Amino acid sequence: MRKSGFFIVFFLMANVVCVMAQCNMLIKYSLDEKLTDVRARLSLVSPDGKNCVLLNDTARRTDRQYRLEQLGEYRLMASFYSDKYGCDSLERSFWLRGDELEVATDLSFARGRKNLSDWKCRDSLNSCRFTIEKRYQSSPQVKIRYLCNQKGESGGPHFSIKNESSDTLYGEWLPGFFWGTLSYNVNGKYVGNYKGQICTSWAPAPPLYPDSVKSAWVSSFRVLQLKSGKFRFNVWYSTTEEMRNSVPLACEREKFRWWSKVQDWYLLQCEFEVK
User: What CATH number corresponds to the domain at position 195?
Assistant: First the structure.
């Protein structure tokens, strides 16, 4: 009887873990408009060793979703096949721990200058971009509040982020600045994703260190005149220094240059009301 009880409890716990591990993988693929005769392929090896083909297409762009249902290490391989441009592949791995909001992978194929330091260079090679982004809810030790009485020229409404964690936090667009988007409440549901004008040429600023406070905005310049209602401010941060749109060179071969990274991003949200 005790053994039966043990197996029942174990079975229930296994099912709970499986449910917690479930999240969507968002797949985005694009091919440069000037190119033809290219087949892209994405294949995924799950923690249990099962291999699944997520993408095998000659389309110019596509958006898909795939359900990830296991904890552990995944291996994702991106491949390009072309009689005209050649064939190559790159594999990246990532881990799921069970609290991911979603995983997003972005794959693109284009032709780029062979000599990146020479703007007049006419020789080209295949330029592939392959990124994997794991998205999480922000740490409870990172606090944000709406500064309803603060006025200024840059990007209001204004918010304050306090970092009570042991991590150093970096902004999405520039390491030392935190710009986010704005959603508004319609019949109890937040809709829209307004992003203001952002200037990435601002003077460098330090990131948000532990036990420090920084401001956050919707845009770099114009203050938004919000009507009465309920709003939600959404801002992303990372605990690594690389900006979201900055993808390092992973490897370069005879005909292919791969730009790739795997990075975690955290979503910090603040709900507030304008009366």
Answer: 2.60.40
